[in-house]
Every structure is written in C-alpha cells, then in structure tokens.
Amino acid sequence: MVNHCPHCGRQALSPARKLLLGPSGSIACRACGGRVGVAFGKAWLALSPGLLVAASGLPIAHASIRHLPMILTLDALALVAMFAAYAWWVPLQCR
Asked: How many independent structural domains does the chain possess?
C-alpha cells in the first residue's frame, strides 16, 4: 500500500497529510516514529499536470477572457489528477 511505512509496514500517515508532504520533506510515522518521505521522482511526475496547466493557462487567459471557463475546467481536472496520483501512486520511502 502506498501510505504504509517502509520501516514497519503499518499505516504511516493519512492521505490528507501525505498531500501536504512535499518531495523534500519528511515526517515521523505515526506507528513506529521512523522518518518517511515521498519518492522524489514520482512526486514531481504527479505534480506536473497541475504545474503544466497553470503555466500554459496564463498566456491563454491573458490573450482572451472568453477562454477562462475552459482554463478553469482544465485546472480543476489537472488538480484532481494531480492529487489522485500523489495520494495513490507516489510511494513512501525511508528518510
């Protein structure tokens, strides 16, 4: 399981707490106290949809306000994909 501690194998943290844990951070496992963090490469890959849509949306929104609903829809879809990938695809690792 993705949120299980690599030290003890038990639930290390909640999915909501994992979403707040960045690629360079670490936290103590709530079961054994061992330090865990997210896998750096997979974390950045999971974050990339939101970053790409946000970066590409600004020039489009600046060019024409009529594209704003489309941009907001893409942003929402990218955020959902980003959070889902981060919560269920990015594994924890020892720190």
From this structure: 1
